[in-house]
Write a structure and sequence with these properties.
By secondary structure, the chain is α+β, with helices and mostly antiparallel strands. Helices cover 33% and strands 32% of the residues. The longest helix is centred in the middle third of the chain and has 16 residues.
Length: 183
C-alpha cells in the first residue's frame, strides 16, 4: 500500500523492513496477539515473516508524529462471501497496538482514519470487525467509530483458533458512517 494518512497525532504509512524492532516487540507480546486473535511470535525471524506478509497487504504502520515511533498497525483484510468469492465491496478491519501505547486514544484515532480511507478512497460499502468478549477496549474503539454489534459466536473448546473464546462481530455500512460524519 503506497498511501500515507495523517491525523492530529499519528501518521499511518506502509510498513517497512526497518520497522522490525518495534514490530517484533508488538507481535511478541502475548497480551496483544491474544487480543488480536493470532499466535505470538517467538523470534525475530517469525516476526519478520509476518511483517513481510503485512507489507504486501493493506496494512499500515501507526507512527507517532511527534517521535517517529511505530506503535502498532491497522489494516483492511480481504473478506470472503458465503459463496467463497472475495467481497469486492467490503473489508475486515484489524489492528494491534503496542501495550505502552494503550489508553491514549491512538487506536480510535487510527481506526477513524482508515475508515475514512476505506469509504472515501476505496469506495467500499461495508466494513466488518470482530473482537473477543473480554477485549472491552477494542469494543469501545469499534463503537466510538460507529460500528454496530451484529452477533456473537463461541469457538469450540477444541478449536485451533481461540478455543472456547466468545467472539463478537460488528459492521459499519458506508451509509451509516456518512450520516454520522455530517453531524
Amino acid at each position: 500500500m503506497t498511501i500515507k494518512l495523517l491525523t492530529e497525532r499519528l501518521e499511518l504509512r506502509p510498513l517497512a523492513e526497518t520497522d522490525i524492532r518495534p514490530f517484533a516487540t508488538i507481535v511478541g507480546n502475548r497480551k496483544i496477539t491474544d487480543a488480536a486473535g493470532f499466535y505470538h511470535t517467538r523470534s525475530t525471524i517469525e516476526a519478520r515473516n509476518i511483517l513481510r506478509q503485512m507489507m504486501t497487504s493493506q496494512v499500515l504502520g501507526i507512527v507517532l508524529r511527534k517521535t517517529g515511533e511505530l506503535i502498532g498497525c491497522v489494516g483492511l483484510y480481504e473478506r470472503m462471501q458465503d459463496s467463497g468469492e472475495p467481497d469486492a465491496n467490503g473489508r475486515e478491519l484489524g489492528y494491534m497496538l503496542s501495550e505502552s501505547a494503550w489508553s491514549n486514544g491512538y487506536m480510535t484515532e487510527a481506526t477513524a482514519a482508515i475508515i475514512r480511507f476505506a469509504f472515501e478512497e476505496l469506495r467500499l460499502e461495508r466494513l466488518y470487525a470482530s473482537c473477543f468478549e473480554e477485549n472491552l477496549a477494542s469494543m469501545r474503539i469499534l463503537e466510538k467509530n460507529g460500528f454496530q454489534f451484529v452477533g456473537q459466536m463461541t469457538h469450540s473448546p477444541i478449536a485451533l483458533f481461540q478455543p472456547g473464546q466468545t467472539e463478537f462481530f460488528f459492521e459499519l455500512a458506508f451509509s451509516d458512517w456518512q450520516k454520522s460524519e455530517k453531524h
